[in-house]
Amino acid sequence: MAAEIQPQPQARKPCLLSKIEAFQDVVSTAVIIPKEDGVISVSEDRTIRVWLKRDSGQYWPSVYHTMPSSCSCMSFNPETRRLSVGMDTGSICEFILSEDYNKMTPARTYQAHQGKVTVVLFVLEMEWLLSTGQDKNFTWHCSESGQQLGTYHTAAWVTGLQFDVETRHAFVGDQSGQVTILKLEQDNCSLVTTFKGHTGNVTALCWDPVQRVLFSGSSDHSIIMWDIGGRKGTAIELQGHNDRVQGLCYASHTRQLISCSSDGGIVIWNMDVTRQETPEWLDSDSCQKCEQPFFWNFKQMWDSKKIGLRQHHCRKCGQAVCGKCSSKRSTIPLMGFEFEVRVCDSCHESITDEDRAPTATFHDSKHSIVYLHYEPTAGSLLTSGTDKVIKLWDMTPVVS
Question: Where are the WD repeats (predicted)?
C-alpha cells in the first residue's frame, strides 16, 4: 500500500520519508494526525481513509470508508477527533474517530449547500462549522445542535477560508481574486472590508493569529502578505512560483511560510526579515527617464518626429520606462522578487549584492501538487498530487 522511503541525508532540503498510494482517484485533502504516525485522507474516489504507520514502516489503512459521492474537502480537529467531510452533493458528513484511530462513528450530516462543498472549517472554540460551496454561499452551523446559524452570499465561488477566533473574523477568498473579511456573530455577519490584489483566482489562504498576517495564494502564481494587525494596509508580494499556488502553511515558531504550486515546486520563505511593498506603477505618456514618447502619444510623436515606444515599468521604483532605459534584470528578494525582473538602469546600479541575497529556498516535490498540510509538532509536511500519491516529508532541515 505505502512504501517506506529511506531518508538520504541532504543539507537544507526537505527529506522524503514515505509515500502513500493505492488511491483510485486524486486525494482532495489529507492531514497529518498530530503526535501520531498517521494520516487522514479524503478522495474523489469516494473514500475516507485513516492510515497508520505499522512496525514495518509502511502506512496501512486502519479505516476504509466509502461515501455515496466524491469527497471534496475536510476539516479535522485533533482535540475532539471530529472529522468533517464536505461532499460533491453539498452535504457535510461528520464522524468521530476512536482514540486508537481504528474506528470511525457517524455523528451528524449537515445539508449545508446546493452545490459542491469547496471548503469546510471546524472551529472548536465557537462550536461552529464554517463552510463554502459552489452555490456561492458561505454558511456557519452550530456543531452541537446542527442548526444553521447564518449565511452570506458571495460574488464568486469561494476557494479559500480562514477564521480568527479572537476577533471572529472570517477571511474568504474567491475565484474573482478578491478576499472578503466578514465579522461573524452568533446568527448574523457584517462585511468589514475587501482586498483585491490578485489578477487570478484565490487558491489558498493562511492566517497567522500571532503576527495577525493573512497570506493569499493565487492562480496568478503570486502570494500576497496582508498586514491585518498593523493597521497600515501593507501588502507585500511574494513572487517565487512558476505555476498556480496550490497551498500555504505558516510555521509561526520560525516565521517561515511554506508554499507549493501545481508544477511541484515547494518554496520556504523567510518572513523574519523586513520586507518592502512593491511600488504602484506610475502613469506617463513618455519614458520618465529619456522622455521618448510611448506609442499612443501621437502628439509628441508628431512634434518630435520620433517613433513611439512600448511602455514598461521598473519593478523597484514603479516608473514608466522604455525598453532601452530598462534593459537590465535583477532579483529583489526583499520586495518578494526571487526571480529576475525588469528594473530601470538607475535602480539596477543601486541594487547591491547584499540586496540580492535570497530570502527563500526552492525544492521540487516531483509531483503536481493539489494540496499540502504542515504539522509543526513533528516538522512534517504532506503533499497530495495529481499522480494519486501522498508524500510525507521531513521539513526539519529547512524549517528550524
Answer: 195-228, 238-272, 362-395
Find, among 232, 163, 164, 155, the residue nearest to 201 by Cα.
155
CA distance 241 to 385: 17
Strand partners, 235: 226
Q: How far apart are CA 43 and CA 28, in angstroms?
A: 5
Tens of pLDDT along 144-171? 999 999 999 998 989 999 999 999 999 9
Rounded Cα–Cα distance for residues 205 and 350 (Å): 35
Please give the model's pTM, rounded to 2 decimal places: 0.87
Place of cell 472554540: 125
Output the nine-digit C-alpha cell for 252. Answer: 509561526
Closest CA to 205 of 115, 132, 309: 132
As given in the structure block, the three cell numbers for residue 333 are: 528578494
pLDDT tens-digit series, residues 243-269: 999 999 999 889 999 999 999 999 999
Residue 121 C-alpha cell reads as 472549517
Which residue in this structure is represented by grid cell 516529508?
393
CA 229/CA 270 separation, integer angstroms: 19
Q: Smallest Cα–Cα separation from 213: which of 229, 198, 197, 224? A: 229
Cα torsion at 198, 204, 208, 211 (round to 10°)?
-10
Q: What is the pLDDT of residues 53-72, one digit of tens each?
A: 998 889 999 999 999 999 99
C-alpha grid cell, residue 338 = 526571487
The sign of the CA dihedral 39, 205, 122, 164 is positive
In the predicted model, what is the mean pLDDT of the chain? 90
DSSP string, 178-233: EEEEEEE-SS-EEEEEEEE--SS-EEEEEEETTTTEEEEEETTSEEEEEESTTSS-
Q: Which amino acid is at 11?
A: A
